[in-house]
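<tokenise_the_fold>
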Amino acid sequence: MMKEAREKESGNRLTLCNKRKEIRGSKMLTKELLLSQKDNLNCLLEKVGENDIDLLVAWLKEKDDTIRYAAFLLLQLLSANSCKVYKYWDTFSGMIDDDNSYQRSLGLMLVSENIRWDKEDKFGVICNEYLNHCDDEKFITARQSIQGLNKICEHSTKYKQEIVDMLLKIDLNKRKDTQKSLLLMDIIEVLGKIASEQMDERVEAYLKTEYERGNDKVKKAIKKYLK
């Protein structure tokens, strides 16, 4: 009887092991599960398989903003931890010129997040398109594009000159005052980090000008970058 019990237990363990393998290889991610864990997406990282990433990318087009945004956040988190999402680069880069500014923003943010895996230098193909959105007609899209430059500069040194050229020619005067100050702070952060590695005369002049005419918040942000 003990032998039979051991064999039964062994069989149960084997069945359980096979079940786990089966689950890992299946489409276990559902919209319901995604939304139930939207405030704790880290717990889904180990559970997301290739088929699930297909779903998440498809859900970026969902009409329901709650699902669409949760899918984006999980893709962003996955991109920071694994190269699995990089294969969708062409999908994301195709979104950055979408007529819908929300889709543009999602594409821009996922491109900048996946720059760390861009060994093929696909960013070079879309660099100008990406940079043009630093002055996007939509304020929030412009901000997200500029903020993404921090990650691009962190993982690639090839495009710093193009980035500087673009940021220095942005006309903030066409924006509302509240928008202008936020965009300026975003620009200062990117230019400041570039200047920290190698000061460009134009960048230095820009930062000094903004320091002289800026408020206390602007002065504090710039001071750490100027010698």
In short: Residues 71 and 94 are 18 Å apart (CA to CA). The chain has two domains: 16-118, 130-227. Confidence is low (pLDDT under 50) at residues 10-26.
